[in-house]
TrEMBL record:
Annotated catalysed reactions: D-xylulose + ATP = D-xylulose 5-phosphate + ADP + H(+)
Family statement drawn from the similarity comment of this UniProt entry: Belongs to the FGGY kinase family.
Function: Highly specific D-xylulose kinase which participates in the catabolism of xylose. Xylose is a major component of hemicelluloses such as xylan. Most fungi utilize D-xylose via three enzymatic reactions, xylose reductase (XR), xylitol dehydrogenase (XDH), and xylulokinase, to form xylulose 5-phosphate, which enters pentose phosphate pathway.
Keywords: ATP-binding, Carbohydrate metabolism, Kinase, Nucleotide-binding, Transferase, Xylose metabolism
Enzyme class (EC, first level): transferase
Annotated protein name in UniProt: Xylulose kinase
C-alpha cells in the first residue's frame, strides 16, 4: 500500500508517495512558471502593486499534470490507500453557485481546467499570502474586538494583510457581484481536497486558524468577526454559510470521502482510495517529524522561523497560534523573525573584509571559548524586525553582569569577531525567550532558579525571570540552509538548551511528506489497523525513519552554559526597550 502527500505551494505542485515503512518511493513536481507558462505568472503569482494573487486554473492544470506524470512513470496508482496534503496558507478560492454540480459531474474525457475553469469559480484568482493590500480591513478587524492583543486572544494572531478574513472583507466590498455569486469560500487546502473528492468539503480547523475569523478557544467561527467581514445588512449569515458553517475538526482523522470517480477512471486510482483533509504548509511541516509536546523546530533560512508544539494557549500579537492539525488539545506556535541569514552574512563579510562568502573566520569566532563576551550583547536587525516589533537597527551594549543594567552603548566592539558570537547568541536568545511562555516548566531546570526573580518585559509579556529560566524545550530540530553550519547550529542548541537532544535534517519535502504521514496514520487509525490510542505523535515516534535525523553534539557542561545564557535575559530586555 502507498500513501500520497501533495504540496500545493506558491511556485509548484509536488506529490510524494511513501510506502508502509514511511520511505519515499516516488515523487513528481510541476513548476508553475516553467511548465504552465501560459498563465504568465512570475514565481507562481501575479503581482501588481500590493495585490498578489494566483490563477486557480493553473492549480487545476497542475493537478492533472502531476497525476499524468505519476502514471507515465509506471507508478502503481491502484495501490494508493489514502491521500492528504499541504497547501499555501491564507489564500481563498471562490466557488460559484452550481460548482458542486460541476464537481460531481466531472468526466475523465476532459481535463479539470476545461470542465471547471472559470465556470466553477466566481473569481479567477485566489489571493496569495504575499498580498499586502488589506491594511484598512485589518484595522477594522482589530478595532472591532478592541485591538491586536484582543484579536490574537480570540484567533491566535493579530490582523495580518495575508489572512483570509481581511482578504474576504476586501473582496466582498470591492467585488460585490463576484461575492454575491459565491456559493462557498474555500481555503487553498479545502479547495484541493474538494477537487480530489469531487464535492465541496468543509475547511480544515488548523488551517482555518489562519483566517483571523476562527475563535480558537470556542472552536467556532467568531460571530463578531464574521460580522465585521460581512456586515449583517450585507449578509453575515451569508458569509458563515459560504464558509460551510462548521469546520472539520482535528480531534480525530475525518474521512472526507473516497477519491472522485474522475481520478479513478482517468489515472487508475483505486475507488476505495481515501481522502483526508489537507492542511496549511507550516502545519504539514510539523507533521513531517516525530514532534512531541515542547519540541521546537528552528528553520534557519533567509529569515528565522520557529515552530513549537505546545498545550499552552498563550497568544501574542507578535506570533501565531494554530490548532495542531493532528494532535488533540495541542497547538502549533509559529514565530517568524524577519532577520536571519542576511544579518549573519553582513557580519561574516565585515570580518572577512572581502566578498569571499567564506564562513571560516565567522565560525571560528562563534566557537572560540577564549573570546569572552559574557558582558556583551548585540542586536543586529538590518531589516525591520517582527519579533520584537521594531524598525531596522543595530545596537551593541556592555552590561553589568550582576544587575543586567546597560553600562555603555558601543558603535563597534573592539574586535569585530565579537559580533559573530553576539549575533548568533542574540538570535538564539530571542527565540528562546519567545518560545518560553509556550513551554511547560521543566523539573530538570529547577536548580537554575534564582533567588531574586524580577519581572522582565518582552513584547506584550511581563513575566518573572524564572518563567524564562525554568522553561526548556524537550528536543530542538534544526532545518534550513544555515542548519548545515556546525558553529551556528551548535551555539543555537546551547542557548535553547533542549533537555532531550538536538537534531538536524534536510527537509526538501517536508510539507508533502507531512501530508503522506497524515494520510497513512489517518487511514490506519480509521480502518482499525492501529488502535485509537495510537495518536499521531505516538505513530511517528514508533515509525519515523530515525536514520534521517543527525544528532547535534553539544560539548561541555550544558547546565553551566544554560545558566550563563540566562544571565543575558535581563540585559536583552533592557536593550530591546531602547529599540523603536
Ligand atoms: C504563513 C504564510 C506562508 C505561507 C507559504 O503564515 O503566510 O508561510 O503559508 O505558503
Amino acid at each position: 500500500m502507498y500513501y500520497l502527500g501533495f504540496d500545493l505551494s506558491t511556485q509548484q505542485l509536488k506529490c510524494l508517495a511513501i510506502d508502509e515503512h514511511l520511505r519515499i518511493v516516488h515523487s513528481e513536481v510541476v513548476e508553475f512558471e516553467k511548465e504552465l507558462a501560459h498563465y504568465g505568472t512570475r514565481k507562481g503569482v501575479y503581482a501588481h502593486d500590493d495585490v498578489v494573487d494566483c490563477p486557480v486554473g493553473m492549480w487545476l492544470e497542475a493537478l492533472d499534470l502531476v497525476m499524468k506524470k505519476f502514471v507515465n512513470s509506471g507508478f502503481d496508482m491502484g495501490s494508493v490507500g489514502a491521500i492528504s496534503g499541504s497547501c499555501q496558507q491564507h489564500g481563498s478560492v471562490y466557488w460559484r453557485t452550481g460548482a458542486e454540480d460541476l464537481l460531481q459531474g466531472l468526466t475523465p474525457s476532459e481535463d479539470l481546467v476545461k470542465q471547471l475553469y472559470p465556470n466553477a469559480f466566481s473569481r479567477d484568482t485566489a489571493p496569495n499570502w504575499q498580498d499586502h493590500s488589506t491594511k484598512v480591513q485589518c484595522g477594522r478587524m482589530e478595532a472591532r474586538v478592541g485591538g491586536p492583543e484582543e484579536l490574537a486572544q480570540i484567533t491566535g494572531s493579530r490582523a495580518h494583510f495575508r489572512f483570509t478574513g481581511p482578504q474576504i472583507m476586501k473582496i466582498a466590498e470591492h467585488e460585490p457581484e463576484a461575492y454575491a455569486d459565491t456559493e462557498s469560500i474555500a481555503l487553498v487546502s479545502s479547495f484541493l481536497t474538494s477537487v480530489l473528492c469531487g464535492k465541496i468539503v468543509p475547511l480544515e480547523e488548523a488551517d482555518a486558524c489562519g483566517m483571523n475569523l476562527y475563535d480558537i478557544t470556542a472552536r467556532d467561527f467568531s460571530e463578531k468577526l464574521v460580522e465585521v467581514v460581512a456586515p449583517k445588512e450585507n449578509g453575515a449569515e451569508g458569509l458563515l454559510r459560504r464558509l460551510g458553517g462548521k469546520v472539520v475538526t482535528c480531534d480525530e482523522p475525518v474521512l472526507m470521502g473516497p477519491i472522485a470517480g474522475y481520478f479513478v477512471d482517468k489515472y487508475g486510482l483505486n475507488k476505495n482510495c481515501k481522502i483526508f483533509p489537507f492542511t496549511g504548509d507550516n502545519l504539514a511541516t510539523i507533521c513531517s517529524l516525530p514532534l512531541e509536546k515542547n519540541d521546537v523546530l528552528v528553520s534557519l533560512g533567509t529569515s528565522t522561523t520557529v515552530l513549537v508544539i505546545t498545550d499552552q494557549y498563550h497568544p501574542s500579537p507578535n506570533y501565531h497560534l494554530f490548532i495542531h492539525p493532528t494532535i488533540p488539545k495541542y497547538y502549533m506556535g509559529m514565530i517568524c523573525f524577519s532577520n536571519g541569514a542576511l544579518a549573519r552574512e553582513k557580519i561574516r563579510d565585515a570580518i572577512n573584509g572581502d566578498d569571499s562568502n567564506d564562513w571560516k573566520k565567522f565560525n571560528d569566532a562563534v566557537l572560540d571559548d577564549s573570546l569572552d563576551n559574557s558582558n556583551e550583547l548585540g542586536v543586529y536587525f538590518p531589516l525591520g524586525e517582527i519579533v520584537p516589533s521594531v524598525k531596522a537597527a543595530t545596537k551593541r551594549i556592555i552590561f553589568d553582569k550582576k544587575t543586567g543594567e546597560i553600562l555603555e552603548e558601543k558603535e563597534a566592539f573592539d574586535d569585530p569577531r565579537h559580533d559573530a558570537k553576539n549575533i548568533v547568541e542574540s538570535q538564539a536568545l530571542s527565540s528562546k525567550i519567545r518560545v518560553a511562555p509556550l513551554l511547560n516548566g521543566n523539573d530538570s531546570a529547577k536548580n537554575t532558579q534564582t533567588n531574586s526573580d524580577p519581572v522582565v518585559k518582552f513584547d506584550y509579556d511581563s513575566l518573572r525571570l524564572s518563567e524564562y529560566t525554568n522553561k526548556r524545550p524537550n528536543r530542538v530540530y534544526f532545518v534550513g540552509g544555515a542548519s548545515k553550519n556546525d558553529a551556528i547550529v551548535t551555539l543555537f542548541a546551547e542557548v535553547l538548551g533542549a533537555v532531550n537532544g538536538n537534531y538536524r535534517l534536510e527537509t526538501p519535502n517536508s510539507c508533502a511528506l507531512g501530508g503522506c504521514f497524515k494520510a497513512m496514520w489517518s487511514d490506519q487509525y480509521n480502518s482499525g489497523k492501529i488502535s485509537k490510542s495510537t495518536t499521531f505523535d505516538k505513530f511517528l515516534a514508533e515509525n519515523f525513519p530515525k536514520e534521517d535525523l543527525e544528532a547535534i553534539h553539544v560539548d561541555g557542561d550544558i547546565e553551566k552554559k544554560w545558566a550563563s545564557y540566562n544571565k543575558k535575559i535581563v540585559p536583552l530586555s533592557n536593550l530591546e526597550s531602547k529599540l523603536k
